[in-house]
Each structure stands twice: as C-alpha cells, then as structure tokens.
Amino acid sequence: MSVKELKKIILVEDEEDIRIIAQIALEDIGGFSVHYCSSGQEAIQDIETVLPDLILLDLMMPMMDGVATLRKIRQKKEMQIIPAIFLTAKTMGDRDNFINEPGVIGVIHKPFEPTTLSDDIRKLWNKHNETN
Amino acid sequence: MKQTNIFGKLAALKKAYTENLPIKISQIESLAIELNAQWNLERLIELHRLVHNLHGSAGTYGFNQLSEQAEELEKLLKNFLEETPPEPQKQKMQELIVKLKDIENIESINGAKISTESKKSALRNNQIFVLFKDKGIMASISSQLKTFSYDVTEGSSIEELAILTKEKWPRVVIVDFNFLNPEGVKKINEIKQKNKDLQTFAIFVVGPKGNFSERIIALRASGDAYFTLPLPMNEILEKIESIEGEDEVYTILIVEDEPDLAEYYATIINAAGMKAYVITHANQIDQALVELKPDLILMDIYMPDCNGLELAMLIRQQKIYESLPIVFLSSENDKNKQLEALSLGGDDFLLKNIEPDHLILALKNKAKRYKNLRSIITKDGLTGVYNHTSIQQILIAEIKRAGRIQMPLSVAMVDLDLFKRINDNYGHLMGDQVLKHFCLLLRKRLRDSDFIGRYGGEEFLIILPNTPLKSAKMVINELREKFSQTPFSSGDTVFHTTFSAGVSSYPDYQTAMELLKAADEALYKAKQEGSNRVC
Questions:
Q1: Does the pLDDT at position B305 exceed 80?
Q2: What pLDDT is attached to residue B122?
Q3: pTM of this prediction?
Q4: Strand, coil or helix: what is B21?
Q5: What was the pLDDT predicted at B106?
Q6: How many whole angstroms from its chain centre is CA B66?
Q7: Which residue, among B57, B114, B123, would best test binding to A if mutated, counting the most A CBs under 10 Å from its CB?
Q8: What is the β-pairing status of strands B459-465 and B409-416?
C-alpha cells in the first residue's frame, strides 16, 4: 500500500520565535513546503488557496485558539479531510478534549526539538495513513 | 539536507533569541508587578500567554532550565485563571519570577545548548519502562534510575506496555520475569513488529532464581540481559549505558574551499549518520581541531591559500594529532603524487569522483578505529573518564579557548570521602564499583561539553567550560547531594558515601597550575570543615 506523500504544510503559530525556528526545522531539515499564518483568521483566509496536505497549528493563540480555528476551517467540506496536528505545551495535559477534534492525528509538545520536528511529524503522518 | 547551512542558521537564530531574552523576561516582570498592584483578569491572561510562549520557545532554543522554570510558573498561572489566588499564592508567583530571572542570567552566560549540539542527546533516548508485579521493587528501581536522569515510566502488565508504547518509545524495558508467559512474549513481539521503523528497545529480564530454565525463557523472549534480585543497580546502569554507546557518532572535518563540493560531501556524510563540519580556509584549522575534536579530516589537496600536503604536515607537528586520520581528496591521477601524499602524513588518497558508498566506507572504519585508539590512550580503563595526563592537556587547551571566546571557565577538584574505608570494609571490587558509579553519575548529569578526568586514585578533576564560579559550585553541590543519596549494596549491607570538592575559576586564576592549586586548596578547606561539602 503506497502512503500518500507529505509535501505541503500550513503552519499556524502566533509566536514569531517559534515560527522562524519551525521554518528551518520544516523547510531546511524536513524538505517540506510550508505556508505560514500568524493567526487563526489568517489561516482561515489562506487555507483554500494553499490546500495543504497537513495543518500544523498552535493550540493556544490569542483571539482565536487552535480548536476554534480548526473548527472554522472544517466548516468547508473540502477541508474536512485534511489531517491536523496540534502544537501544544506539556502543561495542557493529554486528556484535554482537543485531541478528539475531527481529523486531529496527533500532538507535538512544546518546546520541540528543531532537529527532530520533521521526523516526528512524518511518523504521525505515516501512522495515520497506515490505519486508513 | 543542507546540514552545514542549517547549523549556521540555527546558531544565528539562537544568538538573536538570546539577545532578546532579557527583554522578554522584564516584560513578564513588569506585567507581574502591575498585576500585583491591581489584579485583573486581562492582565493575568496576558501574563499567562507571555509565560506560555517563553516555556515553548526557551526549550526549543536550548534554554532547558529556563523552559522548565517557565513551565512551573505557567502551571501556577493557569490555576490562577480558574480562581483568584490568595496572597501566599501571589507571593509564590513573585518568587518564581525572580527564579526565572536568575536562571535566564545563568543560562545566557553558560551559552544554553545550541539545538545542533543537543541533537546528540536527542538521538540518545532516555526513556525506560519498568514493568513489575511488586510495586515496592518497581518504585525502588524507578527512583534509582531517575537519579541518573533517565525518564522512567512504570507499568504493571504487558498489556500496559502496548498502551504506553503508543505514546512513548523506550530504549530499555525492564520486565518482571513473571510477565514472560507465552502470551506476554507474543505481545512484546507484536509491539516490536508494529513499530519496525523505530529503533528496537532492549529487554532486561529480572527473575527470582537465575537458573538455566529461567534464563532460556528470557532469551527466547528476546531478552538482552538477565538479572536476579536483589538488583545490582550498578550493573544494570552500565548495561544501559553500553547499549546507548552502540550509537557512536563520528565527527568528520572537511577542509575544502569549493563550497558546492564541501556541501556535497557534508550531505553524504551526514546522511550516513556521521557529523560533518566544513572549513574553507586552512588557517581555520587550529580552531576547528580544538572546537570540533574531529575523528577524521577529509582534505582537498589543492587549495588556493595552502596546499593540503603542507597542512597535513602542519597538523602532524602537534603530538596529539599524530594519529588523527587524514584522508586526501584530489583529481590527481598520478600514482607518484598520490604516494608522495601518503608518505607525508596522509592515511588514504581518494579521487574526487568517488562513489558515495565508497567514500563512507573509507571514512567510517578509519574514524572508528581512531576513536577507539584515542579512547584507550586518553581514558582511564576502570571508569572511562579521561586519565591524568589527558585531563591536564584538556585543561590547558580549554583555558586557551576560554580566553579566546572571553568566557569564564571553572574547575572542580573532587575527592571521595573516606574512600579507603570502603575498600577496607567492602573490598576493592566494591570500591571499583563505587568509582564507576560515581563517574556514571557525573557523565549523566554534566553536559556534553564538560570534561571529567581521574586525577588520582579517588580524586577527580572536572572542567566546566563557559561556567562562572557561582554556577559551577551550584552544579557540583547538586551532584554532591545526589551522590550522597545513592545507595550501594554489598551483599546484604547497604551503604552510602560522599565526596568533598573545591572549585576555582578562570579568569580569577589565569593558568592551569593556578587553577589547580586554588581548587586543591578549596578542597582541603572542604575536608577540614567536615567533608561532604563544596568550597
């Protein structure tokens, strides 16, 4: 069974320091093509033109958090199949409900290790594709 | 994967982040002061957000302690969001913020680990699962492992192992023999099979009798080691370390002026699991040798400012680099010229159009043999730390480096207390165990950039680069506490032991001799004042 390749990621992250280092981690090390949004609203505007393979978003953002953003995105039918991964601080706890949001295939904890971020994302991606 | 550019980019990012860090911290500080003056929800939410961001970014940029401290503060603030805290809690918040500031100062000076360096520790999986029926035994094993900075997860069945492995992947699983019935073994193999792409974990079996039939069962369950109760923690820890040691990473220094070619070789070498660093000018060689401590040099023979043969001879002039493998790269097809290169100090001669696989083979074995050879020459056989001669040489080199980069350096002279008594009461073998264990603890707790050497029988010298006196004393004192709590078992007896230490710093003292003398005097003072302390 061939696994669909992960090429394009949309990253929704309000903190600039995290965003720049994620850029290196995902583009230079991981070889992905990445589109950046610094807020939930931006992501909602851009997603239809970007049409990524994966949505990577920060859980805690001012004004519109990760869950609300994802729900708004999912309102469009074509956006319902795109898998999503949450970036979240360890303090959020794994039992919180965001993990049950539709299409969420995993969680990456902050602080993350830039040199292994892409590997961790690929692992979640492969796992998700195997079970489908 | 453009590894060479990535390290540069990450380093530049880290520098910028470090420079902005004090501003972030004072933002948090001011907001907290405002909050204390007038408590309102908006300010609290903003403060929580700032601290949350700090927790996330600090860790990613290598400020691990700062990240942990921010995490603690974040948890506290999260609780505040649910209900307004009483005064003592607000006090706690202030305390945590002061701590945050202190840690930021220390970590900034120490040069928090660049994420490129910590890749090595990321490769080293620290997760250990302990599966036992008896909760008491399980707790005892866990706490001892945690002393050595391992992450421990406990479980009480193989089924639980299956659930746990969905979230975390262990390096070692220490399992109760009682769980190795046929279903249990089957389940373990299933778990390994399902996660083929991950590095397989080692299984340590702990059984009651240690007889032949038990051990065969353990072997068939793919057990990598077998231990009987009472658990010899020292042996277990050594075994864990030896498993980790199998993932040795070799460092290759590439001397090549043509950037595309350099990048090409670096990419191949990195892809083969080795670390490649590039210098484009021969005059960078001294710094590269000291900073990177390569296991092999890959060098282009024809370079504009210096020809490779001369450079090789220059390197070989220094005694410590006499056996460092130097592999030449060239388009030179003339056999005579190749032989000349080899006679002048090269170890091998490769053509530039070499197949990547061939290149890797040529390099890997040489680097491995050199690394092993160097280990034998520079390390102490029993404990694996540097021997007396080597640690002194390292000290001299590191002082030079500290002067060059304008950073403080600390030195700790550590002496185990009443060590003779341990040998007398429990035998020399036990004494050796204590020494080994002590060094294991040091290696686990100290950074990759710190150096440990055996200075005398039970005397050790620790070199802490980029560390001011106050931080060094803190670190050594922490180690002193942890060591004093470590139980050693000899037959039925359990005993504890301690050490005393004296610390001195550069630039307070400028030469190796002065530093050693000062640390020694401080150690003497520690012993005079009652031992088990740091002066």
A1: no
A2: 40
A3: 0.50
A4: helix
A5: 67
A6: 18
A7: B57
A8: antiparallel
